[in-house]
């Protein structure tokens, strides 16, 4: 036999019949704060045997939650509109890439990048795949730029001669982050 009877005085009760906070929330969602004014508040308190101040505080809490919910919704809508209104050139794509915030961008914004860079084949992918494609494209572009800058810096010698192949290999080793001394010792071991 159940500890809490489901039938009282011949009437089957609901499972949460004597849970006042649940009832307050249901009534607040269906009728709003008007359900807790004057006699209605007193009837509710008598029915569920609960202090009126407790009910008032919980209703105020529910009102606060509703206000915060509305504020978040408004802010989210404003941010969405602002992001959609930006065009490709308004966004600092490299900054988003470096901060790992590409995934926070909307799909429409990622589509702007893909369209601008002639990556039309990626438009039909899911968002996470678009983020990967954009981040790979940005990373590849940065690598190409850094290689171009470093090779132009090292290719010019004071007397105007071009560098030998060994010197070009040193540049590639330096870009990869390998120490010159370790590469020199490995060359000595091979020879």
Describe the structure.
The protein has 191 residues and is mainly α. The protein folds into two domains: 15-85, no CATH class; 87-182, no CATH class. The chain is built from eight helices and two strands. A hairpin with a 2-residue loop joins strand 1 and strand 2. It is elongated. Mean pLDDT is 78; it is low at 157-166 and 168-191.
Q: Which features characterize this protein?
A:
mainly alpha; disordered C terminus; 8 helices; 2 strands; 191 residues; elongated; two-stranded antiparallel sheet
Approximate shape: elongated
**Secondary-structure element string:** EEHHHHHHHH
The low-confidence runs, each spanning 5 or more residues with pLDDT under 50, are: 157-166, 168-191
Number of helices: 8
Characterize the quaternary organization of these chains: single chain
